[in-house]
Design a protein that fits this description.
Radius of gyration: 26 Å
Strand content: 15-25%
Largest sheet: 5 strands, antiparallel
Order of helices and strands: HHEEHEEEH
Number of strands: 5
Length: 196
């Protein structure tokens, strides 16, 4: 049972990672759209980038999960929940464990165009940094990086809720099986007792 629970938790985390990757790749396609608008002369680069930023800033999933954009410097281009970071250089920005997360993101993009980065970050509406896994993907024409992530404690909370539900189902099933076994046992032993 413990092995099943461990495997199930790992599988759940992997599914969340994959979902995050697909969401970032979908959001990344907006860059291509606005870049084409720029290339066709419909929008200036500044307007194309501004509209791309606004489009990405408004995207949400799972209620509070969001996307941000930084560049390769790294400077923050757009953060929907921390606008005070916009335009700021993030080279010296580290999480509570000393990870230079934005430098790590840029390194991943430079090496392989996209990938996962682990670090600690505050949830929207909270000041306490928690473990987060983000997927980042570069957009070469503008030198931008788009990212989004999952909070590991959210995955754990979902896992424990599902395990609790499974436990209740198992307990209910065992109770029914016990009652049935007792009833069958009584139906066999009762006639025997009567013959004594």
């Amino acid at each position: 049972l413990l092995l099943f629970a461990s495997n199930y938790q790992s599988s759940m985390l992997e599914q969340k990672r994959l979902k995050t990757r697909h969401l970032v790749e979908s959001a990344h396609s907006l860059f291509h759209y606005y870049y084409q608008q720029e290339q066709q002369g419909v929008l200036s680069r500044a307007d194309a980038q501004q509209q791309a930023k606004q489009a990405i800033a408004s995207l949400r999933y799972e209620e509070k999960d969001y996307f941000w954009i930084n560049d390769m410097t790294p400077n923050m281009v757009m953060h929907p929940f921390k606008p005070a970071l916009d335009g700021k250089n993030l080279s010296g920005f580290k999480d509570p464990h000393g990870n230079p997360l934005f430098l790590n993101m840029v390194a991943v993009v430079k090496q392989q165009d996209a990938g996962f980065v682990d670090y600690y970050w505050e949830k929207p509406g909270s000041e306490v940094p928690v473990e987060k896994i983000s997927y980042v993907k570069g957009f070469q024409p503008w030198g931008w990086v788009i990212g989004s992530g999952i909070y590991v404690d959210d995955v754990q909370a979902q896992f424990y809720a599902e395990m609790k539900q499974l436990g209740l189902i198992l307990l209910g099933s065992l109770s029914i099986m016990f009652v049935m076994a007792w009833s069958i046992g009584r139906s066999i032993t009762a006639p025997c007792e009567e013959t004594l």
